[in-house]
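User: Predict the structure for this protein chain, please.
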Amino acid sequence: MEKGKIGVLLSGRGSNFKAIFEKVKSGEIKAEIVVVISDNADAQGLEFAKENGIETVSLDIKSFPSRKDYDRKIIDILKGKAVDLVLLAGYMKIVGEEFVSSFKNRIMNIHPALLPSFPGLHAQRKALKYGVRYSGCTVHFVDEKMDHGPIILQAVVPVYQDDTEESLSERILREEHRIYPEAVRLFFEGKLEIRGRRVFIKQE
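Assistant: Here is the predicted structure, written as C-alpha cells:
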C-alpha cells in the first residue's frame, strides 16, 4: 500500500514538524513528508528538513505580485507533490480561501490554547492575563477563519500562579508535541470523520 504524503508549512524552528518527523521515521505515522515550505529562508525547520533529506522550498512573499499569487505558488507545489495532508507547524501566515478550498479538510494546524479561547497570536500571554486556571493546545482542521476549524484533539495544561509566558509556553509545547503527531496518525489511519463542526474519532 502506497504511503500517504505530507507537506509542511513553517516559519521558524519547526519543533512540531520535528516531533511529527520522528513519528514518521519510526513508522507510527503511515506517511512520508515530501516537502517543507517556508516563508522564511532562515527558518531552523528548513535546515532540519535539509539535514534529513526532505525537499525544501523557501518563498519570499514580497517577490509575488499579490498574496493570492503567493498562495497559488504553494498550492501548485503541494499539488505537484500529490500531498494528502498539509500541516501548519508554526506557519506565521494566514492561508487564504483558495488555499483552504484546494485542500478542504486536509489542512491541520496546532494552536497553543484551548480553542475557541484565545485565538491568534500570543495565546499564552492572553491566557495568563485573563487569569484562567487551565490552558492547553488544540489540533484542528483549518477553515476560512483564523483558528476556527473543526477540533480534532485538545490537551489540558494547568496554569500555575508563578507561571510566566515562557514557562506556560514550554509546558504547552510538550503537549503539542504529543497530540499533533497523534492527530496526523489518526488521519492516515482513516480514523477521523467530520460531521458539521465536530470531528468523530473512530474506535481503535
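Residues 165-188 form the longest helix (24 residues).
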